Amino acid sequence: MAKLYFRYSAMNAGKSTALLQVAHNYEEQGQSVHLYTAAIDHRYGVGKVTSRLGPQREAAVFDSQFNFFKEAPQVNCVLVDEAQFLTPEQVRQLHQLAHVRGVPVICYGIRSDFLGEPFPGSTYLLALSDTIEELKNICTCGKKATMNIRVDTSGKRMKSGEQIDIGGNERYQHVCGRCFYSA
Ligand SMILES: [Zn+2]
């Protein structure tokens, strides 16, 4: 039975690398995949899933108007990067894609923004996903990183701003809860 998966982590935990590995594993078995990434993510050019370790491949982009249930192809697995940018309605569509159309869906994303506020898409993924898994990485202090902070171009932590601001990975740091409140 097809399921909806949410694999979450703090920033810089290798989510895109993990996604590309899963895509490779499916294709190595002769199975088809379809990749999506957020249209608002311009870090590496629209329509690419890029691992910081080097590999990258093209992906279809979704904006807030895209309908996954109606438009996603009938493949062996749909993979969604930057899944925090899904709308709640799109998470519902992906849930139906798995359970009504029978297409497994694996979403990769972060849970909360640089102020500790949840992304609406991630909130719905946590509510509806059949399987929720954490990809772990650690804070500079050695504890597990669960939060994200954003820094400005001079490296100073930002305490206000828009939730969605794709400024490149170097603008974000992953920290533990303790460091989030003390940094
Ligand atoms: Zn820490």
UniProtKB/TrEMBL annotation:
EC number assigned by the record: 2.7.1.21
GO (cellular component) term, any one: cytosol
Residues at which ATP binds: 9-16, 81-84
GO annotation, biological process: DNA biosynthetic process; thymidine metabolic process
Residues that hold substrate according to the record: 164-167, 172
Complexes and interactors: Homotetramer.
Family: Belongs to the thymidine kinase family.
Protein name: Thymidine kinase
